UniProtKB/TrEMBL annotation:
Name under which the protein is recorded: DEAH box polypeptide 8-like protein C
UniProt keyword annotations, A-Z: ATP-binding, Helicase, Hydrolase, Nucleotide-binding
GO MF assignments: ATP binding; helicase activity; hydrolase activity; RNA binding
InterPro entries hit by this protein: DEAD/DEAH_box_helicase_dom, DNA/RNA_helicase_DEAH_CS, Helicase_ATP-bd, Helicase_C-like, P-loop_NTPase
Length: 332
């Protein structure tokens, strides 16, 4: 495993932009709405700072009281790295006041006030304690990422809140249909927060080869041949395509190829956050695991093939089926 203190030290160097986040101007509005309502819907655009700053506000104002503030993330790598970031910003030791819990990995204790966890972990907590009595506030982040776990969890949270047991719920996303979510959760108030975006030049390249994975590899080689500096992030559908793309790119001078997908060991996933050495350029080949709630410094070029694999529940067989499909606009 990587040295936790070393990771936190590296993280500190990149957190001098908190005061520039758009969410700063909405702090009072968010807190007041939460005090007056059991459910608050927040439409926070990309770069608004909602994922890190809202839990920090709740922690600093002690709004959770003597209970936990739970923050769900759809992916393990996001839950762990965001928890580390918030720990740094609040000057807390990871695993103490700020903690996380994902499958096979837990860092929290009796004094933990904010816990980042996956949807599946919170759902499991709900099965063991139907009223989630150890939680005072729950924030469901990236609510647009609909999956079986998250949908069941939202239904259970609505049932818990309808019994007026004091639990507060915050639902956030950058692309969800806030009107539908608001109506589902008792006409909850909606807060809109603008994001902080950068100028992006979009180039639609025709497929050089029939196989889009091969075309992605060709595009990476083409970019690396250009003297313009900056790392590359490539979105592919699955682990098999990533391994295939690595093979097609081959060995290139001063090009460091890093895969990123959910089945990897955590310490292997962490390598994508480490800066390249000796004037190397990083190229990260990732599934949708890198699509939301992750910030990888140094990325200048993004190659998106427009495909992903999604799990669809088959009610007839009672199992999930994985299949390839084109990405919807909100995921692009």
């Amino acid at each position: 495993m990587l040295n936790e203190n070393l990771n936190l030290t590296n993280l500190r160097n990149g957190f001098n932009v908190t005061k520039e986040l758009p969410i700063i101007n909405y702090k009072d509005e968010i807190i007041n709405n939460l005090l007056e309502n059991n459910v608050v819907i927040i439409y926070g655009e990309t770069g608004s700072g909602k994922t890190t700053q809202i839990p920090k506000y709740l922690f600093e104002l002690e709004l959770g009281g003597d209970k936990l503030i739970g923050v769900t993330q759809p992916r393990r790598i996001a839950a762990i790295n965001i928890a580390k970031r918030v720990a740094v910003e609040t000057s807390c030791a990871i695993g103490k006041e700020i903690g996380y819990e994902v499958r096979f990995n837990k860092k929290s204790c009796g004094s933990t006030k904010v816990k980042y966890l996956t949807d599946g972990i919170l759902l499991n907590n709900c099965i063991n304690d139907r009223r989630l009595s150890e939680y005072g506030i729950i924030m469901v982040d990236e609510a647009h990422e609909r999956a079986l776990y998250s949908d069941v969890l939202l239904g259970l949270l609505k049932e818990i809140i309808s019994h007026n047991n004091g639990l507060k719920l915050i639902i956030t996303s950058a692309t969800m249909d806030v009107i539908k979510f608001s109506k589902y959760f008792f006409d909850a108030p909606i807060i809109y927060i603008e994001g902080r975006l950068f100028d992006v030049e979009v180039i639609y390249k025709p497929l050089v080869f029939i196989d889009y994975v091969e075309s992605a590899a060709y595009t990476v080689i083409e970019i690396h041949s250009n003297p313009e500096k900056g790392d590359i992030l490539v979105f592919l559908a699955c682990q098999e395509e990533i391994e295939n793309c690595i093979e097609k790119i081959g060995r290139m001078n001063k090009l460091k190829i890093l895969p990123l997908y959910s089945a990897m060991e955590y310490h292997e996933q962490q390598k994508v956050f480490e800066p390249a050495e000796n004037d190397e350029r990083k190229v990260i080949l990732a599934t949708t695991i890198a699509e939301t709630s992750l910030t990888i410094d140094g990325i200048r070029f993004i190659v998106d093939c427009g495909y992903s694999r999604q799990s669809n529940f088959n009610p007839t067989t009672g199992i999930d089926n994985w299949g390839g499909c084109s990405n919807i606009k909100s995921s692009s």
